[in-house]
Amino acid sequence: MFVSQPLLDVLIGRRIEDVDSFIRAPSWSDLPDPFSIPGMEEAVDRVLVAVREKQRITVDGDYDCDGILSSHILQSVLRRLGAESRVYLPHRDEGYGLGRAAVHHFSRSGTDLLLTVDNGINARAAVHLAARLSIEVIVIDHHRIQDRADTLAVWSDQFCGAVLAALFAVGLALRAGWSAKAVEQLTEGTSIYGAIASIADCVPLSGKTRLLTQLGLAALSRTKHRGLQELLRASCGNPDSPDSEDVAFRIAPRINAAGRVAHPYAAFEVMAAGSDAEQARAAVAHLNHLNAVRRELVQHHFGELQEELSGSRPAALVLYREQAPKGIVGLLAAKCVERFGVPSIVLVPSGTPGVAVGSGRSVPGFDLEQQMQNFASLFDRFGGHPQAVGLTLPVSRITELRRYLEESCRGLSRSTEIQAEADLSFACLSPTFYSAVRQLEPFGEGNPAPVFRVRGADVAAVKNRWVSARDDTLSSS
Predict the structure, then answer these.
(1) How far apart are CA 328 and CA 347, in angstroms?
(2) Cα-Cα-Cα-Cα dihedral sign, residues 104, 108, 109, 111
């Protein structure tokens, strides 16, 4: 397969050895076998027993995009299997993960089997409480293990929660004896949610995750789901051909806005709309409103942060904001990384006197979650990924955290300049080249959109020639 030299330079620079395999179109057979995931077979069999015996099943998710979509996947397949199931999504004020208060709620309302998804692997105390209250727990999670819960778990750090939920759903269908066509339709439908969540949750888009994301994006473009159709129309310039940029900057932020400024059920309603066009339109309109509120909040608080940090050049940022909403701390941290080029943590009051809650984002090559293990005694709780963490700690210890993190980050490269991966001639700028670039999709964590350098070109001319290429309406004016 022919690959132009600029794209070949990008792939070589990223150490992609098998170029043909990387750019070829994937097929459904490329996806992983669900039962290759440790714990999957036993967990699937246990759920099918619960279905047969009419046990009451609760799905406990999270308030972000990955948790919302994971919960929708599981509830959808459980309902198709005839199970009595419900979904519980926490408000952000309840904190991340399975907590004791939620377990008591599940016990009072009647739960025999609890499926936690996108959380739970470190909820040892809450899982122990559930066992004492005669609730069995199955964990489906991808977060790093710190204090593993003593229960049946489907865990892998290679995928996001929604992809694990999708594989779990397919495993249920296979074990339940669904037809090949039904399994194929389920795989296609759940791959959409897995693709959106993989991009939204900044999971490295490599290996099987990249293949599933490619397939999921293609399936998204032809979806018949009313909620997704309305979401595409409301957020994408070309809803018939959504790409990873649409997901990262238009679709996922709307889904996440629900949990950031209101309640995650607002996004869950979009997914639950199914074939109900009126419900879908109303749910998406509400998400649009919440997303606008989210943008205004971020703009206001980041503007204040920039003023406070004027002239400051620390090796890392640990910021405490008395008035900022909890739901935007991760976005503020991400904008600090983008603006100042250093690992950044933004904290706000938790609601408990003397306790702060926050979120951190890192720079490429610096594993923030692993580094925080070195001063874990500071935190009431923390966890996450190499590039993103959540944490809770006493306000009195924020100064210590700042000192420790700054010491850990001394010597890190702090450049915010965009580095080009390959040179490009002005003559290359064409719809054909843009189509070739899209062979490298999907773009995101671990596979960013390539950056090219065009030497000796007039910026206005480049803009006029390139800006419309995405819609294949390139102008040579």
Answers:
(1) 10
(2) positive
pLDDT mean by block of 10 residues, the chain; 477 residues:
80 90 91 96 98 97 97 98 95 89 96 97 96 98 92 96 98 98 97 97 92 96 96 93 94 97 97 92 97 97 91 89 94 94 95 94 91 92 87 96 94 72 80 84 91 76 51 33
Alpha helices in 180-276 (DSSP H): 180-200, 207-220, 226-235, 244-246, 252-261, 265-272
Q: Tell whether 54 and 178 lie within a shared domain.
A: yes
pTM above 0.85, yes or no: yes
Q: Per DSSP, what are the bridge partners of residue 356?
A: 349, 393
User: For residue 94, what are the domain limits?
Assistant: 31-220
Residue with tokens 């720079």: 363
Closest CA to 129 of 110, 147, 151: 151
- CATH code for position 378: 3.10.310.30
Task: Quickly tell me which residue has 């008395």 as its tokens.
Answer: 322
Alpha-carbon span 60 to 153, nearest angstrom? 14
